[in-house]
């Protein structure tokens, strides 16, 4: 099994950091859970980079991912586009269509994800929810007649939308949220889901997360600064697994 993931911070694993500060996230967890379920190694690569809009994901990551000759490719994108004042849903859908077409051409199994819905905790929550609802609806409609595409749709998961599944920036899932997404992907792949992954114990540190002005200073202000300066949280970053790494089963 050769599994490659492309995308943005959601797929890179931001919000679910290992003790050394490197992101883990749902895709790493899927590779680990898949290896355990199969009882055999899984070749895994992850080309996702935080901050990427959907078109750069396709332009920069899709062909290098396919060049690795994977059996499975996961794709999610558009979350950063949806936060911009002018989100072009048609362009986002065109990117999804391009990924599907290229996977078809290369004989690669596409695993398509939607992200969780953070809108209830964010500024501009109404706009973000409307856009996310519409994008999900249109992607699902575009996949009508394609039961071969593996779907792990998280946007409509009301449990995942609860604050307990999100990191302190309210935009990225925490370890609990990433485990729930990984459980959904493994289930969609027909693999055994490890016990507890659907709902890990709540993070006891959640009560100390910043609120009010402290939250805006810590998270909203830097985001606005990047928009005004044309910079990205992913500037200068490289893929955490740009080539195959072997994920061994635990037993």
UniProtKB/TrEMBL annotation:
Keyword Ubl conjugation carried by entry: no
Keyword entries, A-Z: Hydrolase
InterPro entries linked: GDSL_Rv0518-like, SGNH_hydro, SGNH_hydro_sf
The keyword Hydrolase appears for this protein: yes
Alphabetized SUPFAM superfamilies for the sequence: SGNH hydrolase
GO molecular function terms listed in the Swiss-Prot or TrEMBL record: hydrolase activity
Domain SGNH hydrolase-type esterase: 5-179
Pfam families cross-referenced by the UniProt entry: Lipase_GDSL_2 (PF13472)
PANTHER family for the chain: GDSL-LIKE LIPASE/ACYLHYDROLASE, PUTATIVE (AFU_ORTHOLOGUE AFUA_2G00820)-RELATED, GDSL-LIKE LIPASE_ACYLHYDROLASE, PUTATIVE (AFU_ORTHOLOGUE AFUA_2G00820)-RELATED
Name of the protein: SGNH/GDSL hydrolase family protein
Organism of derivation: Protaetiibacter larvae
Lineage, broadest ranks: Bacteria, Bacillati, Actinomycetota, Actinomycetes, Micrococcales
